[in-house]
């Protein structure tokens, strides 16, 4: 893994991230949430852990099924937002995902779009394994590691074939890069670290901590391009090249 000791938390961009998820047409709301609820299938009375919960966007939705949800995150500001906006039987704690300190067992756990910003995910998997009941589900959602490699993948357009494609320059290497969280803003943008690992890395780390992968899904964009010469190609590419990957693992 890359040796980089910079802060990977979203403490510095908590306000921006909270504003982002209040918008109507987000990947979190339109793509990830309905699929997450389908896979997680929360039930009344279940104890569910949200790892790196941010401002509680997904935790709030899971709690609507009368599940008891505990969210942990290292960002004090995001936890404060999550606690302020809780809608059901939810509790939120300032706890680093790499060192989960909870004295209870959970039926299910999930982590959405956070592992790519965490350096030591082996410790995350070990912590979840300790607090998850035997046969408990751990649902992970990440940026698709085959097509979305930070600063090492791009969109391209073939003028001859009139097709949009994805170029990938690195895949097998584990890398960490500094990413602007809200590029395009006039003020100086906050940055965080984003890590890429190949798919086999996740499988190996899960197996090491006693998990067996039960299901893997790839989720595409719900958006469409505006009218123009590249619309058909862009919309086809969205359907063929997935944005996200979901891994459902079960603790032995």
Order of helices and strands: HHEHEHEEHEEEEEHEHE
Mean pLDDT: 89
Morphology: globular
> Based on the structure, what is the oligomeric state of the protein chains?
single chain
The CATH class name of the domain at 11-144 and 197-226 and 243-251 reads Alpha Beta
C-alpha termini separation: 27 Å
Query: What proportion strand?
Result: 25-35%
Number of contiguous helices: 7
Number of strands: 11
DSSP helix fraction: 25-40%
Q: Biggest sheet, strands in spatial order?
A: 3-2-1-4-5-11-10
Second rung of CATH, namely the architecture of the domain at 11-144 and 197-226 and 243-251: 3-Layer(aba) Sandwich
Please give the radius of gyration in angstroms. Answer: 18 Å
Residue runs with pLDDT of under 50 for 5 or more positions: 1-8, 13-18
Task: Using the coordinates shown, work out and report the CATH topology of the domain at 11-144 and 197-226 and 243-251.
Answer: Rossmann fold
CATH homologous superfamily assignment of the domain at 11-144 and 197-226 and 243-251? Vaccinia Virus protein VP39
Indicate the structural class: alpha/beta
Largest sheet: 7 strands, mixed
């Amino acid at each position: 893994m890359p040796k980089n000791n910079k802060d990977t938390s979203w403490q510095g961009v908590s306000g921006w991230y909270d504003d982002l998820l209040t918008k109507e047409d987000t990947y979190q709301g339109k793509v990830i949430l309905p699929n997450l609820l389908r896979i997680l299938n929360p039930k009344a009375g279940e104890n569910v852990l949200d790892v790196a919960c941010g401002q509680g966007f997904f935790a709030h939705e899971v709690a609507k099924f009368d599940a008891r949800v505990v969210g942990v995150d290292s960002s004090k500001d995001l936890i404060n937002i999550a606690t302020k906006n809780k809608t059901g039987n939810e509790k939120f704690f300032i706890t680093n995902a790499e060192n989960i300190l909870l004295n209870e067992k959970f039926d299910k756990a999930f982590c959405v779009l956070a592992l790519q910003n965490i350096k030591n995910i082996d410790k995350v998997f070990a912590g979840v394994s300790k607090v998850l009941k035997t046969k408990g589900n751990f649902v992970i959602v990440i940026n698709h590691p085959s097509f979305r490699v930070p600063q090492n993948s791009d969109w391209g357009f073939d003028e001859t074939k009139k097709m949009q494609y994805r170029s990938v320059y690195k895949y097998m290497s584990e890398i960490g890069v500094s990413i602007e969280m809200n590029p395009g803003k006039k003020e100086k943008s906050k940055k965080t670290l984003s890590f890429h690992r190949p798919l086999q890395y996740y499988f190996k780390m899960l197996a090491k901590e006693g998990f067996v992968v039960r299901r893997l899904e790839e989720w595409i964009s719900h958006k469409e391009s505006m009218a123009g010469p590249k619309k058909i190609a862009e919309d086809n590419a969205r359907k063929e090249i997935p944005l996200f990957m979901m891994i459902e693992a079960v603790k032995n």
